[in-house]
Amino acid sequence: MSxxxxxxxxxxxxxxxxxxxxxxxxQFGNKYYRVPKHETRAGQIIQERRFVEAINRQAxxxxxxxFPIEWEAWIRKKxxxxxxxxxxxxxxxxxxxxxxxxxxxxxxxxxLQAKEYKEGLVAEPVHTHVKGHASAPYYGKKEPSxxxxxxxxxxxxxxxxxxxSGVSVR
Length: 170
Description:
This protein is α+β, with helices and mostly antiparallel strands and 170 residues long. Helix content is 33%, strand content 11%. The protein is built from 3 helices and 5 strands; from the N terminus they run H-E-E-E-E-E-H-H. It has a 3-stranded antiparallel β-sheet with strand order 1-2-5, covered by helices on one side. A two-stranded antiparallel ribbon has the order 3-4.
């Protein structure tokens, strides 16, 4: 490299920092980059930065699973080296196998529970039915209580007492 190019490259590095480096892509087409650790003109050290350029640019288009777990771990610096395609595929196959095994065990467990309920070895779960809400003035009753009833023009403030209190104010 000639001397002028070296000077321009050094100047660009000091002013703008190092260029991003493509680290890899995933099976969805997302591209993963890193900007290495560098020093600014003022002497401040900037740590390594990792990021992704997603194929879905708008935030509302992202869904769970758009980024493989292995790449997300690399971006969050939970792992040092970026994942390989083989590693991602191996882990994906393992997760699918586990889902299938969980489904099979769950079905066996339901059959075993049904058999135990039928034979009387285990009591069946009780299903609770709530009739109303605790904050309702007539919780658990079919209708609201008629007390206190309006006495129209003869009502005297402080004269009504709850039923069963036994004390009357006059």
